[in-house]
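Tutorial, part two.
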Amino acid sequence: MTAFDVSVWRDHVLARVEAALSDWVGAGTPDTLAQPMRYAVLDGGKRFRPLLVQAASDAVSGQAAATLRAACAVELIHAYSLVHDDMPCMDNDVLRRGKPTVHVQFGQASALLAGDALQALAFEVLTLDDAVHVATQARLCALLSRAAGSTGMAGGQAIDLASVGLQLTEAQLRQMHRLKTGALLKASVMMGAACGQTTEQALTQLEVYADALGLAFQVMDDVLDVTADSATLGKTAGKDAANDKPTYVSLLGLDAARELAMNLYRQASQALAQSGLANTHALAALADQVVRRNH
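Running the prediction step on this input gives:
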């Protein structure tokens, strides 16, 4: 049996995702809107969420057409959230993915419209392929809308804005990030799984994996905000501390935050082992990447 090469797998997935995003983002759109939309999505970003979609789909032998559209849709939601999150009324940031943020480059009105259009495009992408069964389309739309909305990412962002300068408990901090960051990461895994067929046991363990991974991702974000520089991160380092936002590092300390990330990684790995799925190599590699990344 050939050993799994995560680099080869990642390059293959990213090439397909980048080509599809390039084809779909801004197509048929007025140029003044297409430019900020394409700027926000293309030529930058690690595409971690699309990789999660593909990895989960691989584990359940998912349909290729549905998987590609799910991978692109979740990245479009992520990109829209970053555009709006960086605006002066939110985090007021000037650097994203190593370049000026969309509102700095194109103005606030164009950034607002670009984010709105990317959010709508995500659901359009999910529903435009006759090769994907309508029941699968509906399931993917349900998973993504729930993860992005008031009981997911948007709700978490609202808690985040209301928590500036406050001392949260670990339970409160975990709930905020379960919604703000974890919901979309979990949706990526579950959308990938929805592209194929599997057992209830496998779905339950994939949810456990996704919950642990999503929290570990945010813990490592908090660690890197303290330990990495802006050039490495591609965004402004130390922003959370400067804005007096509660983080896992401010609450637990740096070493304890790192240990929490490793404990969550072990939970994710155990869930994969108990899933009964044979092809979880990519999911395992992505979990490893989360706790060992430096940007």
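The CA atoms of residues 1 and 295 lie 33 Å apart. In part three we will examine how such features are distributed along the chain.
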